[in-house]
Design brief:
Layout: H1 11-16, H2 19-28, H3 35-48, E1 57-62, E2 65-70, H4 72-80, E3 89-94, E4 98-103, E5 110-116, E6 124-131, E7 139-144, H5 157-162, H6 164-181, E8 188-190, H7 227-245, H8 251-261, H9 271-291
Antiparallel strand pairs: 1-2, 2-8, 3-6, 4-5, 6-7
Length: 298
């Protein structure tokens, strides 16, 4: 559980969040943040009016590098607050669809002039999003599937392969909303030696809680496990599976992940500690699913 020794917050933070809410954010969403990192994270959330509990803004930390990242949902949330907001139209284009795009002679912009579907639709070959706004011309962003090829081989490739429509849709929609509503939060990376942000280098102590294993799965030879031990065995197995989704495989990588994300975990973790670790892993997986449409991956 994170300790909070911040004496004074910025006016924006105190206006946006009650002290007890800040404590929950610190403990559940940014448990590995230093005081200065958390202060910057909370200030960004407050200044932009974003809700960390709604997955609109994230704090991510790997080793000595911290990252404040804005989700695709943040752009949609802020667009809704703008005058003249109208819901965007985001669609996948499949290989068997009838799809045509033409240049508008007046605006000199590409527009979708035909999109008809039939079944079977075939594979996804592209996507487009039209961001509407009352009193403004629609903004259309069209992308070929080849433009996001790197997503299918990157760290979050499993989610892109499994939920291609959702991930691709968020990616292209965010681009359209940014252009239509002039939104650009700008992700911020706080790295080692970043003096401008005033954030000191953070070097967590590595704790190896898996000394004789490649993964977290416990030995299967122990007889007559207690009920709690059975629950721990089950949750450790679930942790191992979900760490693989994050690309964290092998004794050293698992130990490093735990040191960075659950630094207060004991050498002989309790069921509660394992449950807390699983919650952090699931949150990181959610971050990847939501944020793969962000500027960082464009």
């Amino acid at each position: 559980m994170a300790n909070n020794s911040i004496v004074q917050y910025t006016p924006e933070i105190t206006e946006a969040f009650k002290p007890e809410v800040l404590q929950v954010i610190r403990q559940s969403i940014a448990p590995t943040a230093t005081d200065q990192e958390f202060l910057l994270f909370a200030h960004k959330a407050a200044s932009y009016g974003l809700d960390p509990f709604k997955n609109e803004i994230f704090f991510i930390k790997y080793g000595s590098t911290a990252r404040i990242q804005f989700a695709a949902e943040a752009y949609l949330a802020k667009a809704r607050e703008q005058e003249g907001f109208q819901p965007p139209d985001t669609q996948m284009v499949h290989e068997n669809d009838e799809f045509k795009v033409a240049m508008n002679k007046e605006t000199k912009e590409l527009e979708v002039v035909l999109h008809e579907i039939g079944f079977p639709r075939g594979k996804i070959i592209g996507a487009y999003s039209i961001a509407y706004r009352e009193g403004h011309r629609p903004v259309t962003v069209i992308m070929d599937i080849e433009e996001v090829d790197h997503m299918f081989t990157g760290q979050n490739k499993d989610n892109w392969k499994k939920w291609t429509s959702d991930m691709f849709g968020k990616h292209v929609q965010q681009r359209a909303l940014k252009k239509q509503y002039g939104l650009d939060f700008g992700d911020e990376t706080i790295g080692q030696g970043d003096q401008e942000g005033g954030v000191p280098e953070y070097k967590p102590e590595r704790k190896d809680i898996t000394p004789n294993q490649e993964v977290i799965d416990p030995p299967t030879t122990k007889p007559e496990l207690s009920e709690e031990e059975k629950q721990i065995k089950k949750i450790r197995s679930e942790i191992t599976k979900k760490l693989k989704v994050l690309g964290v495989v092998g004794k050293d990588k698992v130990a490093e992940y735990i040191a960075n994300n659950a630094p207060n975990m004991s050498e002989n973790p309790t069921l509660a500690e394992y449950t807390g670790l699983l919650n952090i892993i699931e949150m990181n997986i959610d971050m990847m699913e939501i944020n793969d449409g962000s500027d960082e991956l464009e």
